[in-house]
Structures are given as structure tokens and as C-alpha cells.
Design brief:
CATH superfamily of the largest domain: Metalloenzyme, LuxS/M16 peptidase-like
Shape: globular
CATH architecture of the largest domain: 2-Layer Sandwich
Number of domains: 2
CATH class of the largest domain: Alpha Beta
Number of helices: 17
Mean pLDDT: 93
Distance between the termini: 46 Å
Largest sheet: 6 strands, mixed
Helix content: 40-55%
Structural class: alpha+beta
Radius of gyration: 23 Å
Strand content: 15-25%
Strand order of the largest sheet: 1-2-6-3-5-4
CATH topology of the largest domain: Cytochrome Bc1 Complex, Chain A, domain 1
Length: 454
């Protein structure tokens, strides 16, 4: 058991609220966090049931399973589950990331026991009725079809599919592909739930006004009537390195008659638990992660090529990507790409200036505590720190580590994590004829259809 936390060791550190962490024999981790003030209670259950665990040929099954959780349990119909949750004045939120699925519920403090019981019932005892499976499949297929009308969505789907490669556990969109979703059956959902939800490796975190010891007792009471299903671990996933291909290559996803083009430049990044986390975040923010960054100034402010431009580091538990994102009208597509490549390559050579480095460090250090203010954010951040293996020091010492990033560390991160470094992939969603003409002389071009990413 971990003792109460709540103090920082330097002026830059964040003081985490009092909390207790306990590992159950079943492999479930309990986290009790005290937050005084508003009389609210929040519960979050994070499970090793993310999109990376989708079986081969069943991309989207993790998302499909989450969608079905509240559509009926062993003792209640879908309507009765809705009435139970809404009767507490709450919403049961569900989400799926690459590494985990999560359920969250916030209620008035006096309903804490009822809320915990309801969330555990939905997560652990779904019935997956055949008619609900059929309706969920139709909803998901309709949503995927609609996604093809949104070039930015298609670009995002292409980033993970091409950036990681289809053989990688992260190499598909969380919502899957229509051709695979069409095959989903009730047995698929039952099998996924049994191997991913009813296993060790989950975190149940609660945030409330009571002392952590009392919150732990509350969780144990809620679990006493439904012991955690298993101490077995989910099937392991096979992760491999992503060596970048030599040189820049372009993939054009043909969307006929487009007057604008979505542009992404992507290359391998870093996992969440990297020791270079602080330097990477600082360098990326200076490059394109802030309103006054190098890319925003060059593309939006100076040239007016686009009002949306950014760079980001997509960090998951075992791997990550460095991504440039923007869009522009057809007439300025080549100019946008040339400016982006020029600025990113220049930044990779020099890193941020001393003035930019100081401004970026202060910006990130000042912004970070705001992300820990709500009950929901506290539970999510602490649960993720435990699941990702970064530990609570990742949160407590985030500010001091960011403020301590040196010019040399920032320059090294800028060099190693530029989206435009050797082996980058340039993704354009737009009209094939326009894109081919604009990319002439820059690099080789491969054309794909929209349907491949839908």
C-alpha cells in the first residue's frame, strides 16, 4: 500500500492531493484520492482493453465492445441501465484509447456507493443482447461511412495506419474499418470482454471528499459482491520497432473534386514512459504545439496559408508518432508543404532559441496544474501514470522537469523528433491530379483510395 501523498520537494513541483494506492490479489489496483471542496464523487475504471488488443481482422472491436457495455446487463435492459444512470443525475462516459478502455461517472457525494455499483455492473456484467449487437454494428458502419466525407478524419485514420504500419498493434484506427466491422458478431464481443475486461491489470480510481482510507473501504464494499473476475493477464501484444523508410515518400488519398487538401507529415516518435519526455514536449511545443510556435508563425501568421497548423507527439504506452497537421486550398498546397518542411528541418538543426526555450518552459509549467483541477482529470491522470509505468513522480515533478530542460536537451529532441526528418511520410487527402502536380519533383507519390481507410 502506498502512503498518503500531497507535498512537493521543490518550488516547481505539484502537490498531489492525499491518496492511497493498493494492489488487490486479483491484480486490480485501487486508487483513493481525496479532493475537498465541491461535494462530488468521481469513479474511473481503466481496463487493458484498448484498440491495440483488437484481434487480427477485427479492427474496431474494442470500440464496439465499449459501445455495447451499457446496452443491457445481466439484470437490466438497456433502458433500465439508462434510467439507473440518469436517475443519479449523471452521465456514464466511456472511451477507448490504444492501450485502454475506460468508464467514468461523476455524481453528488451522497450517491457514491450507488454510482460505484452501477459502473461495475455495466463494466463486468454486460449481456450483449443479439439485437443490440446488430444495432451497434449498423451505427458503427454508418459512422464509418460518414467519416469518408470528412477529409480531416480520413487524414487522421491514415496517420495511424501508415505511421505505425498495419502489422503493428497500433496500426489501425480505433473505430476500425467497415470491411472488418461488418463481420462483428456477439461471440466476438463475448470473447473480447472475457480476455480483456475480466483480467488483471485494471485500475479503479475514485476521487471524493472523504479521507483516502474511507474511500478504499467504499471500493472494497462495492467489489465484495462481485469479486474481480481473474488474476490472469490479458494475452500479450507483440510490439516491434518502426525503422523509418529511407527518404521522404508521399501517399495521396484521392478525394475527387476537392478544393482543399489535408496535409500530414508523420514519422516515428516516442512512448509515454521515455526518459526524454520533458525535452520532447518542450521542443514540440516550440515547433508547433503553441499559438506562437515556429510553424504557426511561418504558415498562419506570416503567409496566411492556413488557419490551422500544428505539430504534436502522439505518445502511447509502447510507441509514438511525431505528426505535422494542416490544410490549405489547392493553389497553395505545394507552398504549404515547402514551408513546413523548410521550417521543421531548420528547427531540427538549431533547436529553439534561448528566448523561445524560456517562454515555452514557462508556458508548459504554468499550464500543467490546470489539467489536474477537476475530479475527472485527477482520476484519469493518476490512473494513466500508474498504467503507463511513468509513476506519480511524472505528475508531481512535471513542472520542475520541464523548467529544467536545457538548450542542449531541447536541441537534441528537436533533431530526433522532427516530423520531417529522414523517413517521414507525407500524407495528402485531396484531388489526385492536383496533388500529383504539386508534389512533382519533391518525392515519389503513391495514390490510395478513400475506401482503403474507411
Amino acid at each position: 500500500m502506498s502512503g498518503p501523498r500531497g507535498s512537493g520537494s521543490s518550488s516547481g513541483d505539484v502537490a498531489l492531493p492525499p491518496l492511497l494506492i493498493e494492489r488487490e490479489p486479483s491484480g486490480l489496483t485501487l486508487v483513493a484520492i481525496q479532493k475537498r471542496g465541491l461535494p462530488l464523487f468521481h469513479a474511473r475504471l481503466s481496463l487493458p482493453a484498448g484498440a491495440a488488443g483488437d484481434p487480427r481482422g477485427k479492427a474496431g472491436l474494442a470500440s464496439f465492445t465499449v459501445d455495447l457495455l451499457r446496452r443491457g446487463t445481466r439484470d437490466r435492459s438497456a433502458m433500465e441501465v439508462d434510467e439507473l444512470v440518469e436517475g443519479m443525475g449523471a452521465q456514464l462516459n466511456t472511451e477507448v484509447a490504444m492501450d485502454e478502455a475506460a468508464l467514468g461517472l461523476t455524481v453528488p457525494d451522497e450517491l457514491s456507493a450507488a454510482a460505484l455499483d452501477a459502473m461495475l455492473e455495466v463494466a463486468l456484467e454486460p449481456s450483449f443482447p443479439e439485437e443490440e449487437v446488430a444495432m451497434a454494428r449498423r451505427r458503427m458502419l454508418s459512422a464509418l461511412q460518414s467519416d469518408l466525407d470528412e477529409p480531416s478524419v480520413v487524414a487522421g485514420r491514415a496517420v495511424v495506419t501508415l505511421g505505425y504500419g498495419r502489422a503493428h498493434p497500433y496500426g489501425h484506427p480505433g473505430a476500425g474499418f467497415r470491411r472488418e466491422v461488418e463481420t462483428f458478431q456477439r461471440d466476438d464481443v463475448l470473447a473480447f470482454h472475457a480476455t480483456r475486461y475480466q483480467q488483471a491489470g485494471a485500475v479503479l480510481a475514485v476521487v471524493g471528499q472523504d479521507e483516502p482510507a474511507r474511500l478504499l473501504s467504499l471500493m472494497r464494499a462495492a467489489l465484495s459482491s462481485r469479486s474481480w473476475p481473474s488474476d490472469a493477464r490479458p494475452p500479450p501484444l507483440e510490439f516491434h520497432a518502426m525503422p523509418p523508410p529511407p527518404g521522404l515518400r508521399a501517399v495521396v488519398i484521392h478525394k475527387p473534386d476537392s478544393t482543399q487538401a489535408q496535409v500530414r507529415i508523420v514519422s516515428p516518435g516516442l512512448p509515454k514512459n521515455t526518459s526524454r519526455y520533458a525535452a520532447a514536449v518542450v521542443a514540440n511545443t516550440a515547433l508547433g504545439g503553441g499559438f506562437t510556435s515556429v510553424l504557426v508563425d511561418a504558415i498562419r501568421v506570416d503567409r496566411g496559408l492556413s488557419y490551422s497548423v500544428s505539430s504534436r507527439l502522439a505518445m502511447s504506452r509502447h510507441a509514438g508518432l511525431a505528426i505535422f497537421a494542416s490544410f490549405t486550398k489547392n493553389e497553395t498546397l505545394r507552398e504549404l508543404i515547402d514551408v513546413a518542411l523548410e521550417k521543421m528541418r531548420g528547427f531540427a538543426l538549431t533547436g529553439p532559441t534561448s528566448e523561445t526555450l524560456e517562454k515555452t518552459r514557462r508556458y508548459l509549467a504554468g499550464l500543467f496544474p490546470l489539467g489536474l483541477e477537476s475530479h475527472e482529470a485527477l482520476a484519469e491522470q493518476i490512473a494513466d501514470a500508474l498504467l503507463d509505468g511513468t509513476g506519480l513522480d511524472h505528475l508531481a515533478k512535471y513542472r520542475s522537469r520541464v523548467l529544467a530542460v536545457t538548450p542542449a536537451e531541447a536541441a537534441a529532441a528537436a533533431r530526433d523528433l522532427s516530423p520531417a526528418r529522414d523517413g517521414a511520410q507525407l500524407i495528402v487527402v485531396g484531388d489526385e491530379v492536383v496533388a500529383r502536380k504539386c508534389l512533382e519533383g519533391l518525392c515519389g507519390v503513391e495514390v490510395r483510395t478513400l475506401e482503403e481507410f474507411g
